TrEMBL record:
NCBIfam families: purD. Keywords: ATP-binding, Ligase, Nucleotide-binding, Purine biosynthesis. The gene is purD. Pathway: Purine metabolism; IMP biosynthesis via de novo pathway; N(1)-(5-phospho-D-ribosyl)glycinamide from 5-phospho-alpha-D-ribose 1-diphosphate: step 2/2. One of its GO terms (molecular function) is ligase activity. This is Phosphoribosylamine--glycine ligase. It catalyses: 5-phospho-beta-D-ribosylamine + glycine + ATP = N(1)-(5-phospho-beta-D-ribosyl)glycinamide + ADP + phosphate + H(+). It comes from Nocardiopsis rhodophaea. Residues 107-303 form the ATP-grasp domain. The lineage of its organism: Bacteria, Bacillati, Actinomycetota, Actinomycetes, Streptosporangiales.
Length: 419
């Protein structure tokens, strides 16, 4: 199989790495990719939001599978363009991707499907915002209705900050706050059948101790030793299958990845959000644990063949990823600083580095080129050893002004019940 991955972040490096370890994938490409993916695949510099450019590249290299990493190309209809050319693609079409592209549309679908979620109001002006904030009270949850690269949500007890975020966004969804830990569940769907992956947990706040602003994610781990054994089955029955059926009833076949963001509340699991693609940085740990070859698995979502997959194989043990972020992230991150120590980090037993926001500086040197610069993954027989290896490797990276959280997976590794 010849495969092409679209995107250039840590999630895409994780996807490229997983595909490179699949013996059925004989030729691997990435667009635009990054310095990390270039060691495993041929990088191509194109605009991944341009459906014509993507289909022309896929046709030229003879791609038998195109994996769309980020959300923006999906919302722009890149998967539609590929399917129109008869090129297999992992990712929902434009209409299905509205589950991520519009928080208001996602709420509408959830309500119609009977999916358990937070009460919410769609607000278009300051008066509606004020009424909704009064109705739900603090902590205030204000979500940009459109795409915001994982940073469009504000959860705060500060009324003025909540109102400011609503003004900056325009159309917003304001929700009641959901108590309990959050969990990410990735589900492969061919529009009829659905196959769940391993649940993971990520960390959104910028700083240790869940302090600071929301980010795209500062780390993640899998599996979740504290999760109830029947959690995945419950979510598949109460959330995933009703949602896929509701989309089908609306004339939209959901093919690709359905990301279910959950809050495990005292009243049971509630949906926080849907995304239409792999989450970042949860993908980095979930794919590390996946033992089933990934290429044919992703291709089956496009060909309607997921019904023949009864179970997936997983490596024993655990994986933890720690995000190394640039100075001033998630604001206006500093770019262009040299990065060293990656070889030393990769030499740590059970650890490796995925590139997220890097670029070449000259022929062989690396520099920072984004907010979340590197993902350091540690693996081991349990969470304690996995996180120990991740942090040992992360400490070897040198990037001026960079920072990382020191508490990723800490409570779970200590055996604390997160529920």
């Amino acid at each position: 199989m010849k495969a092409l991955v679209l995107g250039g972040g840590g999630r895409e490096h994780a996807l490229v790495r997983a595909l490179s370890r699949d013996s059925g994938v004989t030729d691997l490409h990435c667009a635009p990719g990054n310095p990390g993916t270039s060691a495993l695949a041929d990088n191509h510099v194109i605009n991944v939001l341009d459906g014509l450019a993507v289909t022309e590249l896929a046709a030229r290299i003879g791609a038998e599978l195109v994996v769309v990493g980020p959300e923006a190309p999906l919302v722009e209809g890149v998967a539609d363009a590929l399917r129109e050319r008869g090129i297999p693609v992992f990712g929902p079409d434009r209409e299905a991707a509205r589950l991520e592209g519009s928080k208001a549309f996602a709420k509408e679908v959830m309500e119609a499907a009977g999916v358990p979620t937070a009460r919410a109001r769609v607000c278009k002006n300051p008066g509606q915002v004020a009424e909704a904030l009064d109705a739900f009270g603090a902590p205030y949850v204000v979500k940009d209705d459109g795409l915001a690269a994982g940073k469009g949500v504000v959860v705060t007890g500060d009324r003025a900050l909540a109102e400011q975020h609503a003004r900056e966004c325009g159309r917003v969804v304001i929700e009641e706050y959901l108590d309990g830990p959050e969990v990410s569940l990735f589900v492969l769907s061919d529009g009829i059948h659905a196959v769940p992956l391993l649940p993971a947990q990520d960390f959104k706040r910028a700083y240790t101790g869940d302090e600071g602003p929301n980010t795209g994610g500062m780390g993640a781990y899998a599996p979740l030793p504290w999760a109830a054994p029947g959690l995945v089955d419950e979510v598949m029955e109460s959330v995933v299958r009703p949602t896929i059926a509701e989309m089908s009833q609306r004339g939209t076949r959901y093919q690709g990845l359905l990301y279910v963001g959950l809050a495990l509340t005292s009243a049971g699991p509630r949906v926080v959000e849907f995304n239409a693609r792999f989450g970042d940085p949860e993908t980095q740990v979930v794919l590390d644990r996946l033992a089933t070859p990934i290429g044919s698995l992703l291709q089956a979502a496009d060909t309607g063949a997921l019904g023949g997959i009864t179970s997936l194989d997983w490596h024993p043990g655990a994986a933890v990823t720690v995000v190394i972020a640039a100075e001033n992230y998630p604001g206006d991150p500093v770019k262009g600083d040299p990065i060293t120590g990656i070889d030393a980090a990769n030499a740590v037993e059970g650890a490796y580095v995925l590139h997220a926001g890097t670029a070449w500086s000259g022929a062989r040197d690396l520099k920072s080129n984004g907010g979340r610069v590197l993902n350091v993954v540690g693996t081991g027989p349990d969470l304690t050893q996995a996180r120990g290896r991740a942090y040992e490797a992360a400490a070897k990276i040198e990037l001026r002004g960079s920072f990382f959280r020191t508490d990723i997976a800490e409570k779970a590794a200590l055996g604390k019940d997160m529920r």
